[in-house]
Amino acid sequence: MSLIVQKYGGTSVGTVERIQKVAERVAATRDAGHDVVVVVSAMGKSTDVLVDMAKEITDSPSPREMDMLLTTGEQVSIALLTMALQARGQEAVSMTGWQAGISTEAIHTKARIQHIDRTPIDKALSAGNVVIVAGFQGVAENGQITTLGRGGSDTTAVALAAALGADLCEIYTDVDGIYTADPRIAPAARKLARISYDEMLELATLGAGVLHPRAVECAKNYKVKLTVRSSFGHEEGTIVEEEADMEQGLVVSGIAHDKNIAKVTVAGLPAKVGTLSKLFNTLAAEHINVDIIIQSSYENETTDVSFSVSGEEVEKTRDVLEKQRDALSFSNIMTEEGLAKVSIVGAGMITNAGVAADMFSCLAEAGVRIKMVSTSEIKVSCVVPGDKVEIAVQSLHSAFGLDAKEKAVVHGV
Ligand code: ASP
Ligand code: MG
After folding, report:
1. Domain total for the chain?
2. Domain span at 305
C-alpha cells in the first residue's frame, strides 16, 4: 500500500461545497488503495480576516497571541473536512499540529519544523483512518503553539511526506501547475510539465506564490516527489523533481516577480573590518530577511551599504537599526519603497554566457530602469520601479522565448 500526502490550499476548501469536493477526491484516493494523509489550509481568506481583526485592536499584536489566533483557521477546516469524509462513510480523524507530532523552534509567527514524531499519524492510519492535519502550525518544546509563516501549509505537507516516507506529495491549489510567469501579468505564460527542485526553489523564493519556498527546500533535501495541480479539475499538474529535462533549447525556464520590495541604504558606516558582520547580525537577530546587498566604494573612512528587504519589513528594519545607531555608528538611513523585483530563472544559465547582459538589454529596450542586481548560478534578479513590473515581466517572457501561442487558462483566480 502506498502513502500519499495531499495538501489543499485555502481556495480549495473555501466553502462547505468545496470541502465536499475535496472529501470526494480524498475518498477516491483512499478507495484506490492508498493510505492518505491530508494537510489543509484555513478556509478561503479566513487567515487574512483574522489578521485584519487583530490589526483593528492593535498595531503590534503579541506574536504569541497572533499564533494562537491564526492557528484557529486551520482547526476549522480540518474538522469540517473530517466530518465530510465521515458523512461519506470514510473513517477519518483530524489532528492539530501538536496532535500530529509536529515540533518546531520556539519562535512565534515564523518557526521552522524541527522534528516530526510519526507515531500518532501511524496509529491513526493503521486503524483505517484518513488523517487530516492542520497545516501551518506546530508546537515548540516549551509547549507554545507556533506557526510556520504565511503560506506554511505547503511546508507542513512536504515535511510530513518526508517524515512518513510518502510515495508522493500532491499540492492542490487554485492554479493547475507552475507557469513560466504569473498568467495574470503575462497572458502568454505557459504551464510547465516538469521543473527541477533548484529552479522551483528560486521561483518560489523570488515571488512565484504557488509554493512556499521552505516546502521546496524540504522536498529537495528529502527527495520528496512533489506535484502541483488544481483541485478544480483533473488536468495533470507540474512535477517538481531532481532533474527535469526542461524545454529543450531554452535557457530561461520561468520568470518570477515580487511587487513589494524596499531598498534600505545605511550611509556613513566605518570602513573597517567587522562592519558588515555587525550590521547584518543585528538584522538577523531580529529575523529580518535581507536579500540583495550592495556595498559602495571603500576608499574613504566610511562606506555605504544598500540592501533590499520586503516592503513589510521596512519599518522594523529602520527601528532595529536606529536602536543600534551608536553601536553601528552610521550617519543616516535612507529607504525607498514601492519597488519590485523581476527575476529570470533557468538551469540552462550555468552553461550559457551573457544571459544577464541579455536581460539588461531587454529591460533597457522596454524603458525599465534597474536599481539593484543580484545573480546566482541559475537566476538573475533586477530591482525595478514598482510601476514597471508588468512591462518588465512581459518583455522578458517574450525575449527569452517563453511566450505561448495560446492564452493560458487560469482556474479560480
Ligand atoms: N492559512 C495560512 C495562510 O493563509 C497558511 C496557509 O494557507 O498555508 O498563510
Ligand atoms: Mg499557499
Report:
1. 3
2. 262-338
Facing residues of 139 across strands? 103, 145
pTM for this predicted structure: 0.87
Q: Give the number of other Cβ atoms within 10 Å of residue 400's Cβ.
A: 22
pLDDT tens, position by position, 20-44: 999 999 999 999 999 999 999 999 9
**Mutate-to-test residue for ligand 1 from 39, 70, 76, 212, highest number of ligand atoms within 8 A of CB:** 70
Contact status, residue 311 vs residue 261, Cβ threshold 8 Å:
yes
Pairing of strands 168-173, 226-230: parallel
Rounded CA-CA distance 406/395 in Å is 17
Q: Rounded to whole angstroms, how far apart are CA atoms 397 and 154? A: 27
Give the residues across from 132 on adjacent strands.
38, 94
Return the number of other C-beta atoms located less than 10 Å from residue 249's C-beta. Answer: 7
Q: What is the pLDDT of residue 209?
A: 78
158 Cβ closer than 6 Å to some ligand 1 atom: no
Cα-Cα-Cα-Cα torsion 82, 84, 89, 92, nearest 10 degrees, comes to -10
Question: Which of 153, 154, 172, 212 for mutating ligand 1's site (highest number of atoms within 8 Å of CB)?
Answer: 153
DSSP state of 221: H
Domain boundary among 314, 338, 362: 338
Degrees to nearest 5, angle at CA 281 with 276 and 284:
130
DSSP string, 238-273: EEEES----STT-S--EEEEEEEEEEEEEEEEE-ST
Phi, psi of 75 (to 5 degrees): -65, -30
Whether the CB of 101 sits within 6 Å of ligand 1: no
Q: Is the pLDDT of residue 413 over 50?
A: no
130 and 10 within one domain = yes
Which ligand minimizes its atom distance to the CA of 148? 1
Which grid coordinates belong to 270? Answer: 566605518
Sheet harboring 102-104: ordered strands across?
A: 113-116, 102-104, 137-140, 145-147
CATH of the domain at 310: 3.30.70.260
For residue 151, give the ligand 1 atom closest to its CA: 8
Distance CA 374, CA 292 (A): 6
Q: What's 410's DSSP letter?
A: -
